[in-house]
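Subject: for your reference before the review

Hello V.,

The reviewers asked for a structural picture of the protein, and I figured it would be easier to keep everything in one thread rather than splitting it across files. Below is the amino acid sequence we used in the manuscript, unchanged from the supplementary table.
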Amino acid sequence: MVIKVYIASSSGSVAVKKHQQAVVGFLEANRINFQEVDITMLEEQRLWMYRNIPKEKKPEKGNPLPPQIFNEDRYCGDYEDFFQSKENNTVFAFLGLSSPPSMTDSMS
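And here is what came back from the structure prediction:
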């Protein structure tokens, strides 16, 4: 299973950039394997992301903003969902992962 974080490398929004950095930084710090997918580079990736976000998570106007998080093809949520799961200490469940890597696993 690969966590995919859909980002926009050329976003003009400071908030979007900070949200993307927060998600990516958390995943890196916790040694969670993930793949960044830049929606500004390939139209097909951006369209795939838009099509696979559940209707109830789409804004009334405009398009959903990055970062958007998927586990393979399963939608996990956006930055707000990620932030809530972090606050509730449920990030691994949010991502659809069983548990954090143990320290012994990462030391070997």
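For the response letter, the relevant points are probably these. Residues 14-29 form the longest helix (16 residues). The radius of gyration is 14 Å.

Happy to draft the paragraph if you're swamped.

O.
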